[in-house]
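Q: Joint fold for the lines below.
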Amino acid sequence: MSAEIWVFAEERGGTVKPTSWEVLGVGQRLAGELGKPLAAVIAGSDVGSAAGALAAKELSRVLALESPALDPYTPDAHTRAVREAIESESPDLILFSHTYRIRDFVPKLAAALDRPYVPDCVGVTVEDGQPVFVRQVFQGKIDARVAVRGEGPWLATLQNGAFPAEDVRAGAAAAPVERRAMDSGGAASRTTVLEVFEGVKDKVDLTRAEVIVAVGRGIGKQENLKIVQELADAFGAELAASRPVCDNEWLPMDRQIGSSGQTVSPRLYIAVGISGAIQHLVGMKGAATIVAINKDPNAPIFQVADYGIVGDLFEVVPALTALARAG
Amino acid sequence: MKIVVCIKHVPARDSRLRIAQSGEWIEERDLSWEINEPDTYALEEALRLREKHGGEVLAITAGPDRAAEALKRGLAMGADRAIHLAGDVFNAADANATARGLADALRGEAPDLVLAGVQSDDKGYAATGVMLAELLGMPHSTLIMEVEVLDGRVKVKREMESGWFEWLELPLPAVLTIQSGINQVRYSTLKGIMAAKKKDLRRVEAPAAGSAGTGPAGTGPAGTSPTALHGLAFPSRTSRAEIFDGDGKAAAGSLWERLRRDGKLR
Ligand SMILES: Cc1cc2nc3c(=O)[nH]c(=O)nc-3n(C[C@H](O)[C@H](O)[C@H](O)COP(=O)(O)OP(=O)(O)OC[C@H]3O[C@@H](n4cnc5c(N)ncnc54)[C@H](O)[C@@H]3O)c2cc1C
Ligand SMILES: Nc1ncnc2c1ncn2[C@@H]1O[C@H](COP(=O)(O)O)[C@@H](O)[C@H]1O
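A: Joint structure:
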């Protein structure tokens, strides 16, 4: 049997994470193009129900790596379990989603195996029987094509939201689930998890806002925020921000939009001086209409915007405020 | 305690980038450069830990000649000494090759703590620190928002998805990648810049840094990467945005008119 393609799926509370379906869709396509069988792999202390959900999809098998040592998550235990499985099964290509957990242990795994690691990809094609990846460099301003050298397994992660989860095909019959009790002995995890907790509950709920004016580091300094507050007031909008604005304590944390902030889908989102890093985009690209004001024509925010002004926000914002006030 | 901070020299955030003729890298001429922003948080955290616990902060970078500039700035901010792992090979290096170079250069230093940024502004692998931990045989954690050094251990607060966090404990020596917002980064003072001139900035040539002169399996010499950049291009994803030009006032006027006409204002 030719070596498999693996899709590493993640679950929380028994449910497969949405990003894992995105990766599975890509895995199914590549399995077809490369003519290789596809397996889904999942790791945890009790992954039965997630494995069942995966088995309903078009793939040749589900490999469930189970051990009490895998819960709570630590990079040592996860690396050990997945590494053991890889070394005994020798897959060719392993696809992951670029989540916080994957970023935490898969680079370690790749270094331990000494195999190529291509993180945060937005495209994968097959050329001469090998995968070629596209990933963004320079904060989304430039795309790079990446080829892998040497033998498999090649490890790659896919950017969250870059591929549609709906592409996953159901299988004709349930795929077999192979449960592997992973060795929990050996060197114990060096990390001890003391506590897992939810941060301060959002004081300001931006998820219900109809119109949001969001400000980024382009505003320069805290004193300049006045002009975007005025714009927000004129539009009857809530004021929100990118992470650096909150990191700098120019606005409170609960105004942050993005992967580590709130996810919003207002009717109108006006991004002022925001570059459009992926971690910001995931929090706002569901907005019905997106307006971007940025002086850099190559800023990635323009890739998701419906309307844009390439210009200096210090000229544009007051002018727009005046128009909005006049109605 | 001895704290190593990995800092990278990258184009300033608001650079207008051009792609080099080779299509393999950017045109470096006429760019201004800075310390990779996430690394400034790591350096700041190292300086604070030194202020609290005593010891030494060692900054290291792997990069071409220009990268020494990042170390000079790091020394001006307060690092005690610096190592420049010098080589043009690091422009094309992926995280694996870079981590190998850094690991070889650091093995003799026996640090208690290694801090890196969460990701580089140029290549954005989000991997080098974690790979370095594996190569040095140290435990690690990523996206750290708080660091407390205890006796032979470190207690850290790690950021997770959608507003969740965790407290972890790791034995030292350990590698941590520091998340933005953990602290407010200090500016370097004129005094710091003057003092930096007298500090030890050691240059190590990259090829000598590879273990036995070889890179990762199947890739040849040290510094060679198991992945290869095939070509750089501006994104082909077509923007669906309608762009309004002209001076600020005129552009704002056109935008306002269009929003009204398209029924986007209510
Ligand atoms: C794990 C992780 C989680 C993260 N979570 C989040 C998150 O939840 N939310 C988030 O926002 N970020 C998050 N980030 C950070 C993210 O990667 C970016 O660094 C951040 O979004 C950049 O913010 P920005 O666009 O405001 O700043 P910059 O990237 O510095 O962009 C500033 C922009 O302003 C423009 N500009 C400057 N001056 C002017 C002017 N006078 N007129 C017009 N335009 C101007 C510039 O052209 C530039 O495009 C996260 C990062 C990581 C690694
Ligand atoms: N060439 C380099 N020299 C020193 N440190 C580096 C280098 N490349 C990456 N790093 C460190 O690793 C972190 C993550 O980088 P990356 O894996 O490229 O996203 C950076 O924030 C730096 O702390």
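Q: Anything notable?
A: Chain B has eight helices and 13 strands. Residues 37-53 of chain B form the longest helix (17 residues).
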